[in-house]
Specification:
Helix content is 48%, strand content 17%. It is α+β, with helices and mostly antiparallel strands.
């Protein structure tokens, strides 16, 4: 049996994987509908489904496309969120779901483009070039997701190493160096979902104007950057820099009263990214490990961490340095 991280209850559903399996095909369907409405306005006689048959109204065509995409994406992908299944099988299921839903979207888009005769091309039931390129991309993205997805509730060698470091620190707490730096970023599945949610609607809308693709891609990249930051603490202060460049949270150690490491839900502290409200500040790239700091002037400061071990180290440093200025030697 795979050991679980201490302090966590066993769950049968990976909530992050389930959210991705549902939200991504939903966003993909929204992009498909928006692009279909823009491209299919000239199809007064209706649109023939990729499987053939008589033409159907554009609304019916898009409804069928959305249902098929959601069934393939959410139906198969949700099975990959079941923690009772072997981890490699879960990876395969999510990868297959990604490939199927992208291939479904490609097939219906190819039917719209083929029958609308965009760019003076001859009218055909399905544009074979779009199908070929889109299917290749769908297979590639399915493989990428299967290789990058990390199943939840697994104990790894990194946890063993972290446990060893925690035991050493418990034996000699002052042996730790009061300097710590790390990077906060969204999980790989979230990054992929944001980028694809920008690329696919942009690719469809680029048929209207090439600026749509650049705009959607830029918006997706800015969204990822807004969820990325570096965190650095030393004997003088705690600093969070947005995208590793712009300081957005600075807390001198002289203002720190106490710090505690917790496993939190992002929405309880304002949500993902930088949040400043009511005398409180927070930067979270995802739900999970974080440090809550009570500071005299800044109020409450919440900073995310890659894992609970790093959060424990950060809170220990801040508690040792609470109310103290930088030491001079």
């Amino acid at each position: 049996m795979t050991p679980l991280r201490p302090g966590r209850r066993e769950r049968h559903i990976d909530a992050r994987a389930l959210r991705f399996a549902i939200i991504f095909p939903a966003l993909l369907s929204v992009g498909l509908v928006v692009g279909g409405v823009l491209v299919g306005t000239g199809l007064d006689r209706g649109v023939v489904l990729p499987t053939g048959g008589d033409p159907v109204p554009l609304a019916v065509f898009l409804a069928v496309a959305v249902v098929v995409t959601l069934l393939l994406g959410a139906g198969v992908g949700s099975q990959g969120a079941r923690t009772l299944l072997p981890r490699n099988l879960r990876r395969v299921l999510l990868g297959v779901a990604m490939a199927l839903q992208l291939a479904s979207c490609t097939l219906f888009v190819a039917a719209l483009l083929g029958q609308s005769g965009q760019g003076g091309a001859p009218v055909v039931r399905v544009d074979s070039y779009v199908v070929l390129m889109g299917s290749g991309f769908a297979a590639a993205m399915g493989l990428v997701l299967a290789l990058t997805f990390k199943p939840d509730e697994q104990w790894t060698s990194a946890d063993d190493a972290a446990l060893a470091r925690a035991l050493e620190s418990a034996a000699d707490p002052m042996a730790a160096n009061d300097t710590l730096a790390y990077t906060l970023h969204p999980r790989s599945s979230v990054v992929i979902m944001i980028l694809l949610a920008g690329v696919f609607p942009g690719a469809i809308l680029s048929l209207v104007s090439g600026w749509f693709m650049a705009g959607f891609l830029l918006a997706a990249l800015l969204t990822v950057a807004a969820l990325t930051a570096t965190v650095h603490v030393d004997r003088s202060r705690l600093m969070v820099k947005l995208a590793g460049v712009l300081p957005v949270i600075v807390v001198p150690c002289t203002d720190v009263d106490a710090a505690v490491s917790l496993d939190i839900v992002a929405r309880d502290y304002g949500g993902w990214g930088l949040r400043k409200h009511g005398g409180s500040e927070s930067f979270l790239a995802a739900s999970g490990a974080a440090v809550v700091v009570r500071a005299g002037q800044a109020g409450r400061v919440v900073v995310g961490a890659p894992n609970l071990d790093t959060a424990d180290d950060l809170s220990a440093i801040l508690n040792r340095r609470a109310g103290k200025g930088p030491e001079r030697h």
